[in-house]
Amino acid sequence: MHPPSDPRQAEAPLPHPRPRAPEDPRLPPPRPDAGSSGRGPGPSPPPLRVLVAPDSFKGSLTAPEAASAMARGVRRGWPGAAVVALPLADGGEGTAAALVQATGGRWFVRRVTGPLGEPVDARWALLGDGRTAVIEMAAASGLLLVPPDRRRPLEATTFGTGELIRDALDHGCRRLLVAIGGSATTDGGTGMLAALGARFLDAAGAPLPPGGGPLRRLARIDLGGLDPRLAETAIEVACDVDNPLTGPRGAARVYAPQKGATPEQVEILEAGLVRLADVAARTLGRDLRDEPGAGAAGGLGFALLAFLGARLRPGAELVMDAVGFDRHLEWADLVLTGEGRTDAQTLAGKLVARVADRCRARGRPVVVISGAVDPAVEPALRQRGVAALLAATPAPMPPDQAMARAAVHLEAAATTALRLLHLGTRFGPGPRPRGG
């Protein structure tokens, strides 16, 4: 059996069912024909090939930790199985970490401007291809960086996110994947754009102070200093909301209260975003305020769409494509996935449901093992091709105890699932290993 081309990508060296083009080196090469192993007169059955591709288990396990626990359980439950651990994410917390592990990437740390103007140390990821950067706006402009008693929603800025983007450009990146969940801001992305060279001016020609509050005084947008490298950079944005920039479902009225805005401040921020949209439409010759996702992250989605030509995509789909999920799926006989809790929200397009959809489309059985499970969603998941839905927690117990032992429970559940599947293959159809 050949070693994998990137040992950080696989839990074990894995074969591939068919010869692979030489320009796709990220998965292991094909396994030699089983009949040449010298272990008997006939061909030996190939090992079961299992892809473990979970989301994080919020509050207890990161996606890499969950994938490792599942992989250990697979090996215990089906000795000799070949396993690839491919931790995933939905575009929110943990997205960059999952992509770094899957592609053999690395981290860069930079001191940037935090949401309230104070310096923070934030990191961004360079993926294994050497040209794709992953920027999590929450690292520089996130709500968790601001204690509840210090939140100033009219002043919060995305300037630090722009500084991370500029640093990625300085390192030669010309493809950016931007995760925009968890923001502290409602500045319409003007801080990010200012860090990249744009200027937002009042009627006297003076630059506006940071934040969404001053946008009511916006008179002109000067894009003459915008970083020219952005014109040759492809930007994809992980975005799972479809809110417009303004209006009843817009960034200010829906999300600003979660960031500490009072009703009066919400209306100030709404007026600022309306003014931004008006001036941007005049400057750009197109009005994108009602585009789905424009209101994401306090209007950062609008700035990325309107000024940088970004493409907004569901976060889970973006991550799955970035790690080559479909290539791994072609190799696998069986897929295991999971999350902290599988419930009705899962069916609304969360990562586990999207994994199930891709498995069904390619005829691969998938087992979902989550920390907690709402049995009411099982029929819908079965319609999406899920072969089994299991709760990792073995019995009712206090949440803190369940979280503390999450890895142990997940490994045990994966072990049980694989033992049952192994038994099932003796009596009927199951995920039988395919030939090489």
Automatic annotation (TrEMBL):
Its EC number is 2.7.1.31. It comes from the Bacteria. The keyword Transmembrane helix does not apply. Keywords: Kinase, Transferase. Residues 1-51 are annotated as: Disordered. GO terms for molecular function: glycerate kinase activity. Belongs to the glycerate kinase type-1 family. PANTHER family: GLYCERATE KINASE. This is Glycerate kinase. It comes from Thermaerobacter composti. The lineage of its organism: Bacteria, Bacillati, Bacillota, Clostridia, Eubacteriales.
